[in-house]
Amino acid sequence: MNQFGGSVQEEAIGTDFFDDPHKYYRRWRKNGPVFRVRRPNGLPHWLITGYDEARTALADPRMRKNVTDLYEILRRAAPDGRGAGASELLSSHMLNSDAPVHTRLRKLVGREFTGRRVAALRPRIEQITEGLLDRMDGQDEVDLIEALAAPLPVMVICELLGVPFDDREKFQEWSRILLDADPSVDMAAVSQQMSDYLAALLQAKRAEPGDDLLSGLIADSEDGDQLSPDELIAMAFLLLVAGHETALHLIGNGVYLMLRDREALEGLRAHPDRIPAATEEVLRRFGPVGWATMRYTGEAVSLGGVTIPAGELVCVSLDAANHDPAYNDEPPRLHEVDESPKHLAFGHGIHFCLGAPLGRLEANVAFAQLLQRFPGLRLADPEFFPDWRIGFMRGFGSLPVRLK
Ligand code: HEM
To answer: Is pTM beyond 0.90 here?
Structure first.
């Protein structure tokens, strides 16, 4: 008998999950859309896998994210008592806050992160992509992640935020450690390095503002608004981290899917106007954020036939919801997507991805240019199987392709 009256299943997740989550999803569907799991690191929490329940939960204000309470609950639940990855300073950003704090932060960044600013980036994204493809030209074989999927989003986010591109190795390494919450690394030390780096960068921008988004945020906050220095650090951290690993995997996963279906790839090459719809289907099938960030119940919540008590950790599997057979029993081929798939790959509700227009734009430009430039593009090894990243970010670190 467990604390939920014995009727609630708890499913253990093995590290083989990351190679083929669908094997698990198929089995889990028999449990209903809401049940308990235990992560490979021993952390127990509720998991939501049904599409309707996922949408409902993501829009439910009783599913909270306030970082102080969340970290406390995580520390209590974690078998080693270590809790989450990044420090509370770095993590006190809008993705870890509830209304009205979230409303205020989102409004402030929304003034700078506008559709206009993103749309204006298109020619620059095209130019950066062209430059990266120029470097690939003439080679027989490249790793597509290293040559295109990784550098493009970092170059774009660095320009947008005004972060020196030369610093990328440092902050990419720190953010990867903090995202994956690697237990063998001293998170406090890495968090400190990251926050010191961002504090110095913001200080330099205060002294000498540029035409970039972080300078804009500083100027706004000095205009009588209240983004404190700590809030600026957390916001910069969120934008930097959320803005490149995700787009990297969207491009990597998309190219992989196209290369596995030659006819779809040729169809998209012949009809590039179909690429944006194909990108949406890539997001549905292989969205880079497999599981949304952790929430907790502020009060008891009944969902999908179970009642989750107050103060419990809850995670929504966007990936499982996007494959709910109730909605997606016959997926279209990538070149035949007519209707935008109903996916939750960018989340839903107040935390819906701020960078969705940018992520989509980067992927659309990358796919279009790559298909036009390299007619012979194919997997270097037709039997290639991705080495999926361990963690709930869905993507892989290398994709060897032949260009001729
Ligand atoms: C390209 C693929 C991307 C995907 C699949 C993606 C996915 C997501 C998801 C699922 C969430 C919500 C998480 C949750 O509710 O737990 C989110 C939030 C967020 N994303 Fe993205 N993202 C992408 C690109 C970007 C980019 C390029 C940026 C640019 C900076 C960005 C910035 C953000 C921010 C700031 C939030 C927090 C929004 C809030 O709390 O109000 N994302 N993203």
So the answer is: yes
